[in-house]
Amino acid sequence: MATKPDIMISDGPKGMTPIVKTVVRFAMGIIFMFGWYIILYGHLTPGGGFAGGVILACGYVILTLAFGKELGLRKLSDMGASIIDNTAALLFAVVPMFGFLFGWYFLNFLDKGRPFQLFSAGNIPLYNIFIGFKVTASLFAIFMALSIFGRFVSKLVDEEEEG
Amino acid sequence: MQGLYPLFTAIPLAAAFLNLLVTKVNKKAADYIAFVVAAVLAVMAVRMLFEAPFSYRVGGWSAPWGILLVSDGMSALMLTLINVVSLLAIVYSLSYMTAYTAKPKYYSLFLLMIAGMNGVVMTGDLFNLFVFLEIASIASYALVGFGTEHEELEASFKYLILGTVASTAILFGIAFLYSMTGTLNLPDMARQLEIVGINRAVAFVIALFIMGFGLKASTVPFHAWLPDAHPSAPAPISAMLSGVLIKALGVYTIARIMFNVIGPNGMVSSLLMFLGALSMVVGVLLALGQSDFKRMLAYSSISQIGYITMGFGLGLNPAVPPAVAALGLFGALYHLINHAAFKSCLFLCSGAFEYRTGTRNRFEMGGLMRRMPVTGAACSIASLSIAGVPPFNGFWSKLVIIMAFMQAGYYVYGSVAVLVALMTLMTFIKLQSSVLFGQLPARFAAVKEAPVAMVVPLVILAMLCIGLGIAYPLFGESVLQAARDSLLDKLAYMGYIIGG
Prior knowledge:
The complex is a heterodimer of chains A (163) and B (500).
Chain A: H1 18-40, H2 49-67, H3 69-75, H4 78-98, H5 124-162
Chain B: H1 7-25, H2 29-48, E1 54-57, E2 68-71, H3 73-96, H4 103-122, H5 126-144, H6 150-181, H7 186-196, H8 200-217, H9 226-232, H10 235-262, H11 266-288, H12 293-315, H13 322-357, H14 368-371, H15 373-387, H16 393-408, H17 411-435, H18 452-470, H19 472-488, H20 490-495
Antiparallel strand pairs in B: 1-2
């Protein structure tokens, strides 16, 4: 059995009221599924890596707002976000360089498949996935930085005013 | 080299993110990654000087549909300038940046800035140019505020707001041009504009571009951000901003679009000449009274950019004989590389003095020539170059610009250029007398020469200041004239759409 109590299940004192927590618990799966749908179908329908990444990052932001930042950071730590962010950007920069092997930088060298199928368009879905990961991680990291550092700074200001 | 041309942006982009990953394990690696990347890029860039012009189709897509990268004399000159100065600034950072925390982030931002600037000077696609311009600008906003002190953050914020206003104007201009020509490809756009002509919409685009790119180049009256931003940044970044960034993002883009896309035009010419002269005068007048070493250099940058802008203005003038216009353009290009050499050197010197004495106020310094002879000598050489003392490089390029204006019959502009040269001399004599000579304050009696990694780039740049002046036959014919011809030959630029 799990040794640590799951914050998502317990309606503990942290975060918002049980109503918000319950709604977020229901919405969470749908938000993440929709985000991934937008990323994976980026080459077929409107949207893509950036739009989908923003939706995924919003999912994490809602989690953090409803359940407190401990849960947010447990699901995606700042170090983890930074590693995902940089790896995705590095892959996005490196994969086009493999195009040199086939003649041109940024050449779409993978099999194009049949148009309008999920597995088609060669490299483009790959780029969408990289961008999706990068945007999710960066936006969540920015949100956490603003909320954590914001509190840190306002505490400093308060101390200065008192002292 | 032709097949590997996109590596100029691909390598620094990949290295910037690799650097952040590797340094999570080993913090020391940042220095090595940045140095190796900058060295490789500098060697590749110098090799580009010997390549014949060509164009590269990104992704194998042919010209009006895909993104075109163009390599001609002007691009090769700018690439060499950017990557050589970057290498020197990174070598300098190895010692200088130990005073700051978060060195890996600094190098990553630096590499992103290099990627952006390389992209701007390589691309033959207007929207691609905008994207790279934003990459370089955003990296530079962060680098200006890197010290995170009150003053630095304020300068960075000011730069960010004004830079964004400029970017908006540029984007607006791009949208207008796209609506009129139906293409974003610069050679193709040049062809379409031959049909459209200079109508009111194109005139409005010119105004937007002169405002937007003029702000990036910091010509007066768009210069308000520069005197705050350049002194606030760490010294190697000040050297990059003043030496290269304002030229790659501002001066180069204006030149490329006005010469190769819109074509010589009397209105643009007189506007650029006037703005150039105004920048020269205002910049040097404001520089004269500054007590902050780096602030003085920043104002002087505005003044020197004025010379370059004015030369480009003359080059665009269809009313003067082609040979005279070409001479003006040649002088501007020559002054552009000279300014990169001496202004980078001066900013790095100011950093070395600050590193050892802890102050930037020139009235608190004095007699440092005796304590820091190598840095002092480099500072002295660069000051004489910028002041236009023969036989240093600044003298020759100013002479060419003044001669071109006199030959074209613009006696007032020519006289202003002479007067500003004299006032620059005055500024830098004041600077030298208060920093290098005079009484050494007692608290600086134990000051030592700067570390080796900081002195080596200074010596190289000082040697460049002398070399660019006296070794003109080695590079004048081939490099500078190739750059000038590539700007003057609009037909050849339009032809890149077929090649690649």
